[in-house]
Amino acid sequence: MVYRGKPSKGCRNCRQRHIKCDETRPHCKACTRTKRICPGYLDSFELMLRDHTASFKKSSTSTSSTLGTKSSPGTSGYSPSSTSSQVLSTISAKDFISAWPPPMAPADFYQPMEHTVIPLWFNSYLYLPQELHIRNGFMDVLPSLYAKVKSGSHLHLILRLVNDPQLTLYPQDFMATKLWENPMKAHLKGAVALLNDRKSKNSETPVSPFLEHTVQTQIIKSSRGMAGQTVRTTEVWPLAQPCNRPTAKSLLSSITSGIVLLRSSWESMLSNPPDEIQAALILKKATEVDIDLVSWTYQVPPHWKPVAASIIPQPVRDAGIWKNRCDCYPDIWITANMNTARDCRILVHNIMLGCLRLLPSADPDGSQAATMRSTIRRLADDICASIPYVLGNQQESVRMNPGNIVYPFSESRPVTSTHIHAAPLHGAWQLFTPLRNLQNPDLGLPPEQVAWARKQMERVLTIYFQR
Question: Is the peptide bond before 80 cis (omega within 30 degrees of 0)?
């Protein structure tokens, strides 16, 4: 017999039979000798949390049977003890256990939906581990602003409109987003006007730097690629001034702010008769921006550099992979910054190619143009190689179950829990702008690569809009 004073480490069969278990793995000899299926062994933590369900059922059964036999025959009239004994005798132990405690929830269990959904949204989109020097713009101050919202303020009215169940019946806003009527630029123009008004009134607040950085980032984002007109910048540009201790993110924001003016100059030149002098000036400015972007790629921290994936699961390959290549990064925010630099370089090289067409004497043998086209293809391949890492095999919204998505990885870059939770929520949105710009026919990419990018764009739209 085993010592009953402490939990036995033997298998479940030996502990139930109260015999000595030799703890042979994977099956003890006692179970093997008696031809029983050995259920295995519990770890030390499970031994500390002993299961008393069986003993509780046994004691409840014996208690109910004892109470049932205490009712004396021949007694008449009302007796609380006899009545309770009769009731207990008609209820089995199993029913008694399943019905106790009664199904009563705490008074504050059923809370309003916004009290649950809003904290869940903050935890899913804001409070995720990421690089310390990477910020989310206005999203970083959104929790504090939401906590201090006053009745009647603009934010309070917006929240009421969003939470209004009657307004959700009108599909105009959703269809405008789904059909890509580009409402973002309209909001961005309004934000630029508000910032200009705040600058003129000197109404600076602690939140102003975050809002200025956000508006600047969105203006730069809308200027990448050649689709549509450039949004007019604020009166003071760039908005976010260089900080005392620049980081890789702030340096990239400062460099890419130059592409807004570069593209505006390019659009202005195209709207007028060709001017070789202006084309030469734009070519010079584009070359300077490209040199700054190349220098930035050498200044980023070493762990920002991509690593080729050594394991690419088959579901990821089925979802889409370009040229059998996949690169892994520390997280999706670093991936987004690297793709931003690549996307901006593609725009710059595309403008440089346009300038060379207007300046035949600047490239008589066409070697510079050939080098620029090769650079555009290489940058496009780098963007395509990051897509499997960001999306994995995701084909639709995860609906709070990200564990079913698999991702490629390498020995030095395993899949982290942060990536599993953050990538399904943020990843596809970060890929939208690069994928849209890769479909520009002026880039001269191979038709099969453009078709692949278009298919991945459909995948992104399906993830967010369930098309």
Answer: no
Report the predicted TM-score, pTM, of the whole model to 2 decimal places.
0.68
pLDDT in tens, 86-110: 444 444 444 544 444 455 555 455 5
Q: What is the pLDDT of residue 29?
A: 86
Q: What confidence tens digit (pLDDT) does each residue in 361-374 have?
A: 888 888 999 999 99
